[in-house]
Amino acid sequence: MSFAASKLGLVKGNINPAYVGRKLEYCINKVGCKAILLPSSVKSIDSLSIFRHLVPELDQQSSTKELSLKRLPTSKHIILTGKQQSSKSLPIHSYRNLLEHGAKISHNKLNERHASVIPDSFAAIFFCIGLTEHLGPHFTRFCVPIPMFHIFCEVVGVLNVATSKCQMKILQFSRVVWASDENQARRLASLRRWMPRLDVKVVDRGGTPVSYIGQQGEIWARGFPIMLGSYGDTQKTNEAITPSD
Where do runs of H (alpha helix) occur along 141-207? Predict the structure, then answer.
């Protein structure tokens, strides 16, 4: 799904399936989800029932038209994944039908869509990021027990493994990353080396670079791994990201 969305220029929002009620409503409306891929259940969580409780008018919607949901005004399509991919009583699509429909689109149409994608645009939004731990420099295979809505699983478990063998450490929100350092003393006593193509500096409270070793400050970084900002929230973006100069 990550690769398909990025190739089509779609913004994928990863939402914790444990979110219910107002929290789920906030996440969906915050990013203006137009289509929701919904598993019927996740472990003991009855996702479909939770969603129906959020939008009880779903049962009265037409299966041949776009949805019109009072609490989720931007959501027009529901796609059910997992073992239960159909429901006669609900106007929802199945993931299987989505794949079948996509297979009918010509390669020329797909290439046109790919060419229209802007590489610097938003690609994914995460509501659950957290702080991950360092991976050793010699791992070639590892288990990622973290669920797909977490940025660690998305970046390290999917995108990173598919493209390279580089291990990363990801900081909450900023996604600043460190490369592995084989020197154990440096690994234990420092933040290790910065990854290539990152500009990094330590500044004081006024934003001026620190002038001597041992002076306390805040780490500022600039480069391709840094998030573009808080989606749809200029104020929060300005609080977290300084102008690049």
Answer: 151-152, 161-163, 184-189
Which tokens is 18 given? 């444990």
CA distance 127 to 19: 10
Cα 36 to Cα 94: distance, rounded to the nearest angstrom: 11
Residue 79 has pLDDT above 70, yes or no: yes
What is the enclosing helix (H) or strand (E) of 94?
A: strand 93-94
**DSSP H/E element including 201:** strand 198-203
CA R_g for the chain:
21
For the stretch 214-234, pLDDT in tens is 888 888 887 766 777 888 888
Same structural domain, 90 and 177: no
218 and 144 in a single domain? The answer is: yes
Query: How buried is residue 80: exposed, middle or buried, by Cβ count under 10 Å (0-12/13-18/19+)?
Result: buried
- What amino acid is encoded at 95 in this protein? Y
